Amino acid sequence: DTPAGASNTATTAWAMLGLEAAGQNPLDVSAGADTPVDYLRAHVAELSTSGDLARTVLALEGAGVDPRSLGGRGLVAALLKRRRDDGSFEGWPVTTAFAAIALRQAGASGGLGRTLSWLDSVQNDDGGWGDTPGSASTADGTGAAMEAIPNTEAARRGLAYLRSVQA
Q1: Which of 62, 110, 118, 133 has the most CB atoms less than 10 A away?
Q2: How far is it, in rounded angstroms, from Cα 24 to Cα 63?
Q3: What is the 3-state secondary structure (H, E, C) of the chain?
């Protein structure tokens, strides 16, 4: 959180994703002898939500670390168990989008069609996606959904929405 604040799994995974986007492997960054991956391994039991699991799977995949067994916990399997019968994760478009991206990245695409169909079904009439089905579209939610369903008609409608709200 802050240099003097307590660490947490969410901030650690986000920082890992930022490092990876900048071309730096988090395994090459350490505080003393511990890397961000070591921190996540030690705190793996704290990962409880679909968002926690998806973000951490993405961060680990980007670092070249297998998310199927981190600290004795299979994060991909744990994420898959959180998928609802309708294909969504938590019933939230952004969480569902990031879960789909994480599962695809981890090579666990079985059942992904149902998830992507759910995302398509909750797209707003303006072409965007909101925080919850039917809520006002946001650029963040729309961008996440578009990443999950690239090269589709729904993604093209999402792009039109983003262009319409661009400042």
Answers
A1: 118
A2: 9
A3: CCCCCCCCHHHHHHHHHHHHHCCCCHHHCCECCECHHHHHHHCHHHCCCHHHHHHHHHHHHHHCCCCCCECCECHHHHHHHCECCCCCECCCHHHHHHHHHHHHHCCCCCCHHHHHHHHHHCCCCCCCECCCCCCCCEHHHHHHHHHHCCCCHHHHHHHHHHHHHCC
Percent of the chain with pLDDT over 70: 98
The answer to whether residue 93 scores a pLDDT higher than 80 is yes
**Residue entry with tokens 């921190």:** 39
Give one word for 13, left, alpha or beta, with left for phi > 0 and alpha for psi -120 to 50.
Answer: alpha
